[in-house]
């Protein structure tokens, strides 16, 4: 059975930062990734708040630079999915989907989070047929069409602005009477003639046969239903942590985010958490990178 000092699960910004610091500390480590490096950053069109890039940088380019940096320090990388983790005496055993097991002294969980769904009629059936959770991926398909964006946070407003590059009109549907996004993003949205705000409303149904044709919405204040004819629906109503494989092993909050101390240590000895899967007030690239660096430093400290 393969034995490591450290296994990092997930290669988004938190996992890549942890890999850089672990490599520099000459820890015998492994970086595990189910898909490809990057996580949610890969579907971010423009990153404008990461230090060192005053003109902004694409999510793909930023992750590419991080991955190259991690590779430079020689940490082993492997594509596989973690099924479960269990304690085995003084070590931790990781079961992989590839029917392999790895023993390790420490684990950094950096599996990030994924977008939440609305759970309304038509959403699942029309996903990939006009329903999307990634404006960067699918925006170009809606050139000169009408689309709706659901949500009121930074992601929803930022992606609504991005979609105006292609769509002739963007409805921004929000359940409250004011947005939660930062003031800078709000101003950009309010100043954009292609964006129409739909306040106090929730989506009740996404309508369409082979593709999206409309959304049925309900105004929460008047309780009146109405239908907006759209060809696409982009959903940004929060995220959920990718932590199901450690449920019951480490302490989590009510939403499933992993609780840690300031050293990124979880309730289980030898297991650390970093990035968007961790319970914290701000889910951003810069905080994920900070978490990853801290977690790797904590591993080096604790193992020594």
Describe the structure.
- The protein is an alpha/beta fold.
- The chain has two domains: 2-115 and 239-303, FAD/NAD(P)-binding domain (3-Layer(bba) Sandwich); 131-235, 3-Layer(bba) Sandwich (FAD/NAD(P)-binding domain).
- The chain is 22% helix and 28% strand.
- The strands form four sheets. Strands 1, 2, 3, 4, 5, 6 and 17 form a seven-stranded mixed beta sheet that branches. The protein has a five-stranded parallel beta sheet with strand order 8-15-9-10-11, with helices on one face. Strands 12-13-14 form a three-stranded antiparallel beta sheet, with no helix packed on it.
- Helix 1 (13-24) runs parallel beside helix 6.
- The chain is elongated.
- The model has no long low-confidence stretch (mean pLDDT 93).
């Amino acid at each position: 059975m393969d034995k490591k000092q450290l296994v990092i699960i997930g290669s988004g910004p938190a996992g890549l930062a942890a890999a850089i610091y672990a490599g520099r500390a000459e820890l015998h480590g492994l970086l595990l990734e189910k898909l490809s490096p990057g996580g949610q950053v890969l579907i971010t069109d423009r990153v404008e708040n990461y230090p060192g890039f005053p003109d902004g940088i694409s999510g793909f380019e930023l992750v590419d630079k991080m991955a190259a940096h991690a590779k430079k320090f020689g940490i082993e990388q492997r594509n596989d999915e973690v099924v479960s983790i269990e304690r085995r005496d003084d070590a931790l055993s990781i079961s992989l989907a590839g029917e392999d097991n790895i023993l390790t002294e420490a684990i950094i969980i950096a599996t990030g989070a994924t977008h939440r769904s609305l759970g309304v009629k038509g959403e699942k059936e029309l996903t990939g047929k006009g329903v999307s959770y990634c404006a960067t991926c699918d925006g170009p398909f809606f050139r000169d069409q009408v689309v709706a964006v659901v949500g009121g946070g930074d992601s929803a407003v930022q992606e609504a602005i991005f979609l105006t590059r292609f769509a002739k009109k963007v409805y921004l549907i929000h359940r409250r009477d004011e947005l939660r996004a930062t003031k800078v993003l709000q101003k950009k949205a309010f100043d954009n003639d292609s964006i129409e705000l739909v306040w106090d409303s929730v989506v009740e149904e996404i309508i369409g046969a082979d593709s999206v044709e409309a959304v049925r919405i309900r105004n929460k204040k008047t309780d009146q239903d109405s239908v907006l004819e759209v060809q696409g629906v982009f959903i940004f109503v929060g995220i959920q942590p990718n932590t199901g494989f450690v449920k019951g092993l480490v302490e989590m909050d009510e939403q499933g985010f992993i609780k840690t101390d300031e050293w990124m240590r979880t309730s289980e000895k030898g297991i650390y958490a970093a990035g968007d899967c961790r319970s914290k007030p701000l889910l951003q690239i810069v905080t994920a990178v900070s978490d990853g660096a801290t977690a790797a430093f904590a591993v080096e400290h604790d193992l020594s």
